[in-house]
Amino acid sequence: MAAQNDIQLTIPKDDSRTNECQTPNEEFFDYSQRAQWLRAAVLGANDGLVSVASLMMGIGAVKNDVSVMILTGFAGLVAGACSMAIGEFVSVYSQLDIEVAQMKRERTAEENNEQCAKENLPNPIQAAFASALAFSLGALVPLLAASFIGDYKVRLAVVIVAVTVALVAFGGVGAVLGRTPVVKSCLRVLIGGWIAMAITFGLTKLIGSSGL
Fold it and tell me: What are the average pLDDT values for consecutive 10-residue runs of the chain, which has 212 residues?
């Protein structure tokens, strides 16, 4: 009788609720993986653009000769690119040494976590190359903008306009690649570049007019 009274009910499983927050075929991408080279590239591009443009603006404040401005900008490009590459290599390598040493002290972690950590370690060569290349590309903007203009005032105005456009572009590209707010990034880069150029131009003009 007990066997006849046992009633088994089969309730179909509804898998739709378990995955209602998940989208099939949607691939998750960790944008923090780009931080290693993106930071160096964004820093290099903005540094090359702002420092070389500011250097040229400073020279333009006391010298009307276009050849002096171009030679000064080119020297700043070469020196800055080399400095950025070496600086990034040394600093990122120091960071790598620290993280590797920390991993050795934490050998009790699981193997898969250790492998994941190794994949996310900073790459000094990649950072140095990205920084030097981005610096050179950024520095080319004011150089090319001033190379073919003879009039002094027009040359300075064209350099400012070209650098402004490039600052907005670099800020936007960095924000898109890193999936960060575009407007905030562009404004931050643009205002910083304007301040650097204004300070360099003003101080050089002041010192040049005082006869020092």
Answer: 47 45 47 61 81 88 83 86 79 74 67 58 77 86 86 88 90 78 87 88 81 56
Buried b (16+ CB within 10 A) or exposed e, 165-198: ebbbebbebbbeebeeeeeebbeebbeebeebbe
Amino acid at 154: V
CB-based contacts of 142, cutoff 8 Å, min separation 6: 49, 52, 53, 56, 73, 159, 162, 163
Q: 0.70 cut: is pTM over it?
A: no
Length in residues, the chain: 212
Where do the structural domains in the chain lie, given as residue ranges? 34-205
Question: Can you tell me the distance from the alpha carbon of 187 to that of 18, in angstroms, rounded to the nearest whole number?
Answer: 42
